[in-house]
Amino acid sequence: MRERIVSVDIFRGLTIALMILVNTPGTWSAVYPPLRHATWHGYTPTDLVFPFFLFIVGTSIVFAYRNKQPSPAVYRKIVIRTLKLIGLGLFLGAFKISSPFILPFEEIRFPGVLQRIGVVFFAASILYLNFNWKVLLGIAITILLGYWVWMGFIPIEGQAPTFERAANNWANYIDLNFLGTHMYKEDYDPEGILSTLPAIVSSILGIFTGLVLVGPKGNKIRSMVLMGVGMVLLGHLWDLVFPINKALWTSSFVLVTAGWANLVLALIYYFSDVRGLSFGSIFRYAGANAITVYFLSSFISSIFYQITDEAGVSLHEQLFNSIFVHQGLSMEFSSLLYGLTVTGFYLLLGWWMYRKKIFIKV
């Protein structure tokens, strides 16, 4: 029987819970700063959440494929899972509650969180199956350096490139020209085309941590801490010339977020796998159906925003205002309370599915 690394399951479920929390405040007009994304450059705790999930995707790839060899059957399963993830993401971007149940084509957003997870999973899985860690390290370094050179030094139609939110930003330029109206914003998409390349490295760095965890006995915590501290420091040094930026998924952002992921995972690993302390089970349960729980939270949230009364007030607003907004409570606290309630509901759903042995593999 394959040994379970409890900390990986807890980390995955905790990340999903945080993804739900930051995506479902009571009102977007009243959110505590740590639960907001950075306006452009820089990062907040919220900006760590999605790269943490891509990181643990890489770690999980090691556990899933360490005893497998490249073969048509293995590749077929990888492709099928990739298409499922992309399909679910496109569905979320296209669905509307009224007939004909799909947005006009020009309004459908093509990129998205699940689409990026699908593409990153595909690339990282194929790379892991075919290359050793030394080649993977070379690929990661090449992508991160190449992305910096592309974004910072190659002119765009005669103009010097920029890292700012502008037309002469390579990531924005490519998205605008290839995706057109199918973007999150009119001028950029945080899960856009070019920035998917460094996002793959987020998963590759997770693969390295997975290799540490399944490797021969040794001080695995020390290895994760050294990798974590090293990447955080290197990322912040790189920030001086290539700003940390989630929307662009810059190379410095990749290193800093993977560094913090290693440090957080090392902490959980110490208490759960080394000390044997029993905690975080509720996150393990959600992590067992991570994609299903995330998809349901996004889908139901979309429905709650789309159902409106005659005055145009959404069901989401009605629930928030009638249950969570009270005199004496700040709007930020009420908004957080709503998000925590929603997150708690999906954690309980994950627990119920786990108890009923319902595991939906996406």
TrEMBL record:
Coiled-coil features, chain-numbered ranges: none
Pfam families in the record: HGSNAT_cat
Keyword vocabulary terms for this entry: Membrane, Transmembrane, Transmembrane helix
Entry annotated with the keyword Transmembrane: yes
Database matches in InterPro entries: HGSNAT_cat (IPR012429)
Transmembrane residue ranges: 10-28, 48-65, 85-102, 108-129, 136-156, 193-214, 221-241, 247-270, 282-305, 336-354
Residues of the Heparan-alpha-glucosaminide N-acetyltransferase catalytic domain: 4-216
Name recorded for this polypeptide: Heparan-alpha-glucosaminide N-acetyltransferase domain-containing protein
Provenance organism: Robiginitalea aurantiaca
